[in-house]
Amino acid sequence: MTRDFAKQVWWGGAARRLAVLALLGAGCKAGTCGSGASGSGPLSEQERKGLPGVIAFVSERAPQKDVWLVRPATGEQTQLTRGPEDEYPGAPSPDGASLVVVAAAEVQGIHVEQLRLAPLDGGPVVMLAPPRGRARNPSWSPDGSWFVAESDAQSFSDVVKQAPRENAEVTRLTEAPEGNFEPSVSPDGTQVAFVSSRTGDPEIYVMKADGTDVRRLTSFHKEDMAPKWSPDGKRISFLSDREGRVRVFVVKPDGTDLRAVSGSQQTGEEREPVWSPDGKKLAFVGRAKDQKSRIWVADMAGGEPVALTDGKSTDDQPEWSPDGKYLAFASERTGDVELFLMRANGSGQTQLTNTKGADWLPRWFVPKTLPPAGQGAGRAEGT
Questions:
Q1: Is the pLDDT of residue 31 over 70?
Q2: How far apart (Å, rounded) are the C-alpha atoms in residues 27 and 307?
């Protein structure tokens, strides 16, 4: 399997977007959502004041892609990264003090990637590993003492483990030469879910955090990909084209109770599943044939998914608020790609960013600290 780390297509749009690659209330039933899903108006200033945390995102307002931060409560924005390469936000550290950033560039015609740690207090960026052809999909341990990622340091693509500091020892957890991808650390830090093509096509596997006791969870002749643990550790979501279209599936860590989360055909092709903080729901993007992509939510207790956006514009990349009451998402409804907010039932859709150049790939979290407005992490050396 040779899939680019950030390559996703904006359905209904002409541009390809890099994404390095997360409801409450009721919406409208599958296939019946109309203008009502967009709510009666934007969030009030008073309600916005209660919105928690900060949202990291990619902005294309400069020639290169940079990581910015925006406070959903006020709309105040701060530039976090200033490197000459394209930079994308990965996951924040568990203590909220820093953000893993994936930097990508073309050097003498060769694509290179590098994982970096950007402190939110404006401190210097830490180079977590030398630039290489594949350095992507970082996933933190719950205590922040280590993380896993994809790497081609020792073979085509392996899952590796290291501490979040410069020149840290890198431990290779997988050795299948066919490739290993998209690792996801369990909430308790004892296991890692990942994709491997060791049997000829991509399947979902789970191993202990030290790389032992590898267990295969899926077995089908189509592609299974993008595993993500639920916050309670009881399920793993993943994408699969086993039914002739890509759909969101869930499975228990022991390989039982594998099922699609959306019973309806109305959602079309599905992608980008994101767990609610309590693990009870999954937000995802769906695009039916000849329609624009929209954001849906499925209840893990069962039933049809509900649509949160009306399908009149391309809506993408849902991200839960830390308290599970709101979602951020990217939308082309203004003619440019901007970030929007909405309540978890789809109401109160509110524009958050408004800049020339696309803003996308939101990552919503509670930071330990933030740099002063207008400042950001120290400029990184180029790859």
A1: no
A2: 6
Please give the single-letter amino acid code of residue 339. L
For 278-324, how does the pLDDT look when each residue is reduced to its tens digit (9 = 90+)?
999 999 999 998 899 999 999 999 889 999 999 999 999 999 999 99
Q: Nearest to residue 206, comparing CAs of 222, 223, 228?
A: 228
DSSP of 224-282:
EEEEEE-TTSS-EEEEE-TTSS-EEEEE-TTS-S-EES---STT-EEEEEEE-TTSSEE
Inter-CA distances, 361 with 62, 72, 130, Å? 16, 15, 25
Judged by DSSP in three states, 116 sits in strand
pTM for the full predicted model: 0.88
362: closest CA among 17, 13, 115, 50? 17
Query: How far lies 184's CA from each of 192, 195, 199, 219, 276, in Å?
Result: 5, 10, 20, 19, 16
DSSP secondary structure of 291-348: S--EEEEEETT-S--EESS-SSS-EEEEEE-TTSSEEEEEE-TTSS-EEEEEETTS-S
Instruction: Identify whether the C-beta of residue 284 lies closer than 8 Å to the C-beta of residue 270.
Output: yes
